[in-house]
Amino acid sequence: MRARSVHGTSPWRALVLVAIALTVLAGCVSQEAVKKRQRESEGHYKDGISYIDTDQQRAFVSFQKSVQANPDNFDAHYALGNIYFQRKEYGAAEREFRICLDLDPRSGEALNYLGRTLIFSSRLPEAIEVLKKATGLVLYATPDKPYLNLAYAYTLQGDVPAAIRAYQESLKIEPPSIPRPLVYLELGRLYMKQGDDGRAREAFAQAKALDPGGPVAAEAAKLTERLR
C-alpha cells in the first residue's frame, strides 16, 4: 500500500508542488530584479542628461553606469555614442551606435550618427550605405539630416552630382530640421565646382533671401561676386 500524507497527498506530489512553487517564486524574484536594474539604469540616465550641458565627464560616467545596470538601455548607449563622437573616439562611438541598432534596427538617429561616424573614420562607402538606409526609413521624422551627411560623404568621395542630388532631396523634407539657407549655400558651392554659374547664382540668391543680414547671406554674397 502506497504511503499517503496526512491530507491524502503522496510525498512525491507534494515535492512537485513545492518545486513548482519555488520556480514561480524564483521567477517573480527574477522579474523584480530586472525591474530594479531598469529603474537604476533610468535613474543614472536621467542624472547624465541633467549634467550633459555643464559637466560632460560626470554625464559620461552616469551613462556608463546606466548601461551597466541595463545593457538594453537604448538612450544611454546613444548618449554615450554622442559623447564618444564629440571626443573623436570614433571606434567607441561606432560600437555604441551599432548596439543601438541591435536594440532598434529602424532608428533613424542611430543610423544617421553611425553614418557620420563612419565618414569621420574615412570609411566613405560604408557611410554612404548606412546613410542611404537612414533616408529610406518611412517613419523617420527628420531624413534631411542623413541627406546632408550623405551629400557630405559624396562630396568627399568626389561625386559632385550625387552630392547635389542629396542636397536637393533634403529640400523636399517638410518641416525641415536643417536650416534651408545652409543647404542652398552648399548647393551653390557644388554648382560652382561644376562650373554651372547660373544655378550657383540661383542657389546663393535663395540662401540670401532666407537669411537676410545673416552670416550665411554674407557668405553667399561673397561667393556670388566670384561668379562670371
Structural features, described:
This protein has 228 residues and is mainly alpha-helical. Helix content is 75%, strand content 0%. The protein has helices spanning 11-51, 56-69, 74-86, 90-103, 108-120, 124-135, 144-157, 160-170, 180-194, 197-210, 215-224. Helix 8 (160-170) runs antiparallel to helix 9 (180-194). The radius of gyration is 28 Å and the shape is elongated.
In short:
This protein is an all-alpha fold and 228 residues long. The protein is built from eleven helices and no strands. The protein has helices at residues 11-51, 56-69, 74-86, 90-103, 108-120, 124-135, 144-157, 160-170, 180-194, 197-210, 215-224.
* Uncertain runs: 1-9
Number of separate strands: 0
Total helices: the number is 11
Radius of gyration: 28 Å
* Proportion of residues in extended strands: under 5%
End-to-end gap: 111 Å
Average pLDDT, all residues: 89
Order of helices and strands: HHHHHHHHHHH
Pairing-aware structural class of the strands and helices?
Answer: mainly alpha
Helix-residue proportion: over 70%
